[in-house]
Specification:
423 residues, alpha/beta, seven-stranded mixed beta sheet, four-stranded antiparallel beta sheet, binds 4'-deoxy-4'-aminopyridoxal-5'-phosphate, PyrdxlP-dep_Trfase_major, EC 2.8.1.7, Aminotrans_V_PyrdxlP_BS, Cysteine desulfurase, cysteine desulfurase activity
Length: 423
């Protein structure tokens, strides 16, 4: 994107017009949650003003309108992912999507779902593989699933820079592996996972592949079928959509075979006092009144990014990421987690500033109007492995300019002098 186009994109985000601590807001925390363009805010509002009703069950006109808008939203997500509509399940967020998968597999392991679900049952001797750099949302559900089923949890290690060790993966993914769950892009290093090397290892042993696409969905083309994964999740709020809505993609045959996770209305065919029969996907995974307005808002957000072009967004943010990494590499006393090699990364970097706590550095940036994230970014094991308790993360969005990166770099360079840390 040319600067003029980014300026036009920026103008669509009302929140970016404000000043913070006397400085124009420089929002470099899109990896935590993205800001919302006016058209997304308006789409959610329009749903409530024009079409609000419970979906799927009403005989009245509004209910039909609400259902149409909700199902249109699903169709938009399906287009975004290049998959079928019945392969798209709306969840609350990525965390719920990952828990849904873990619980469905846990239920299959308890014998629920009959013959169709039996191939997915886990037990002692089976192994679940994840990695050392996962967000807690893609780690803890697997710890709990392993504990409930007696399966063993194993991890693909990272090297001293925090990059996945493909060379060690073949020893971790074995004939016992039933599931590989990994992130598409690390939310700490911004490094894209080597899926083309790891997924075939899982395929070769017949393991399911679950992709945490939280940090890839906003930054480039995301086509789960091309990536050859069985299941993928992302959060709407990181793709310029509302909070409260996320997406689970699953291969149709797999989703229909897995037992449900939550139970209640809108997911059944027949119910007696003793038992129930469940609808196919996606309804079997969307019990109760769904996130209707939020799904409508998310669809508008996906139209927004798709109109700009996911490939163009990817190229622009990669260039910003290169500028950020090159700048950080030149600042004394600043260590970039994941190293400074810019190849295969999105516009995101986390740093440890020698001698200054990440929270102090974050405060210093905030005083200059720069919004950065500090802490362990829900990846404690990775931080521990890299010998850091916390880091400061800068992450780009579709509205980020090179000038903002330069301001952030200038501010990061000023942290150690300000806190009097000797060079
Ligand atoms: N996975 C990754 C890689 C993430 O970055 C995040 C959000 N920080 C999540 C999972 C969880 O997303 P949410 O909090 O929206 O459920």
């Amino acid at each position: 994107l040319e600067t003029a186009e980014i300026v036009g994109v920026r103008a669509q985000f009302p929140i970016l017009a404000q000043t913070v601590n006397g400085h124009p807001l420089v929002y470099l925390d899109s990896a935590a949650t993205a800001q919302k363009p006016e058209r997304v805010i308006a789409a959610e509002g329009a749903f409530y003003r024009e079409a609000n009703a419970a979906v799927h069950r009403g005989a009245h006109t509004l209910a039909a309108e609400a259902t149409e808008r909700y199902e249109d939203a699903r169709a938009e997500v399906a287009r975004f992912l290049a998959v079928d509509e019945n392969e798209v399940v709306f969840t609350s967020n990525a965390t719920e999507g990952l828990n849904l998968i873990a619980y469905a597999l846990g239920n299959a392991s308890l014998g629920m779902g009959g013959d169709a679900a039996r191939p997915f049952a886990l037990g002692p001797g089976d192994e679940i593989v994840t990695t050392e750099l996962e967000h807690h949302a893609n780690l803890i559900p697997w710890q709990e699933l392993a504990a409930r089923t007696g399966a063993t949890l194993r991890h693909i290690p990272v090297d001293d820079e925090g990059r996945l060790r493909v060379d060690a993966a073949a020893a971790v993914i074995t004939e016992r592996t039933r599931l590989l769950a990994l992130t598409h892009v690390s939310n700490v290093t911004g490094v894209v996972s080597p899926l083309e090397q790891l997924v075939p290892l899982a395929r070769a042993v017949g393991a399911l592949v679950v992709l945490d696409a939280c940090q890839s969905a906003p930054h480039g083309v995301l086509h789960p079928r091309e990536l050859d994964v069985d299941l993928a999740v992302f959060s709407g709020h990181k793709v310029y959509g509302p909070t409260g809505v996320g997406v689970l993609y699953g291969r149709a045959a797999l989703l229909d075979a897995l037992p449900p996770f939550l139970f209640g209305g809108s997911m059944i065919t027949t119910v007696t006092l003793e038992k129930a029969e469940y609808l196919p996907a996606p309804q079997r995974f969307e019990p109760g009144t769904p996130r209707i307005a939020q799904a409508v808002g998310l669809a508008e957000a996906l139209r927004f990014v798709s109109e700009i072009g996911m490939d163009r967004i990817a190229a622009t943010e990669e260039a910003l990421g290169r500028r950020l990494l090159a700048g950080l590499a030149g600042i004394p006393g600043v260590r970039v987690l994941g190293g400074t090699d810019p190849a295969g990364r999105v516009g995101l970097a986390s740093v440890v500033v020698d001698g200054v706590h990440a929270h102090d550095a974050g405060q210093f940036l905030d005083d200059r109007g720069i919004a950065a994230r500090v802490g362990h970014h829900c990846a404690q094991p990775l931080h521990r492995r890299l010998g850091a308790t916390a880091s400061l993360r800068l992450s780009c969005g579709v509205h980020t300019t090179a000038a903002e990166i330069d301001l952030a770099l200038q501010a990061v360079a000023g942290v150690r002098p300000y806190f009097g840390v000797a060079a």
